[in-house]
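ugh ok so i messed up the first submission bc i forgot one of the chains. this is the corrected input, ALL of the components this time, i swear. 289 residues overall. if the numbers dont match what u have on ur side tell me asap before i send this to the collaborators (the ones from the other lab, u know who)
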Amino acid sequence: MLLDDGITFIEGENHGHYPYSNSLLIKDKVTALIDAGIGKSIEELAKKEKVDLIIHTHSHEDHIGGDDFFRSEIAIHSLEAPILEKLERLADLYGLESEEMISFIRGFFRHESLRVDHKFEDGYIFCLGDIQFRAIHTPGHSVGHTCFFENERKILFSGDIDLSSFGPWYGALDSRIDDFISSIKKVKALRPQVVISSHKGVILDDIDDKFDVYLAKIYEREGRILSYLDSKKGRTLDSIVSQAFIYGKFPEVLHSWFVLMERIMVEKHLERLIEMGEVGRTGDTFSSL
Ligand SMILES: [Zn+2]
Ligand SMILES: [Zn+2]
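and heres the new structure output, hopefully the right one now
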């Protein structure tokens, strides 16, 4: 889908739903691609386009698995670069221990590490010719997660601030809820006219509302956890996790991984609630104050 002269939306397989993701092709003096997941659309693109530069939103497996199809230079935020350079660090960040989960992640890659040619920081401007994209550091989902903004047409590539109905995902050890909240507000304040989400595609309507609904998911989850803690007896972390307040229910495939992600996300909510003075901890139980 051509969004503007030289700017084309590349839909990932299965509409970019995980483990696939969407990309943006920018053809100017430099041909750049924002993100390169696995799947047919990226493989086909690699056959017909010479891409000079791949610019990454972050280092998660669903955004980088297609890098090897291109002979491009690779750019990523300096805080994400160490993960791309040594992919086993990704398994560490997910807290993965079981072989099943590690081999699932490894299945995305043909190499154990990727070369990073350019490390950038917040505010870096990619001058691709007439078209420029500015890096907007948006941590929360991951420590160096970055969105990209084209100021003339107000196009935002929002990455995994994905406006999905699931809501924000902060299930890795480098995720931070408070940062995620600030990052959603930061990109909403840019007043984009077009949002390209890694997993939801091109969004043109009700953008402000969609950011609000997405942000509200965090507070809804927190509300469900708080009501569960509102009892005389404290609740253990295991008991809170078993309620699946975030995932709703755990799928059968990779069940233990989903439980682990729920656990990491619940722990982050509990830390936040303790810091805000709304929850107290006694031994290994939590209760509302
Ligand atoms: Zn991600
Ligand atoms: Zn993703």
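quick check: The first helix runs from residue 40 to 48. that seems consistent at least. Residues 225-288 form one domain.
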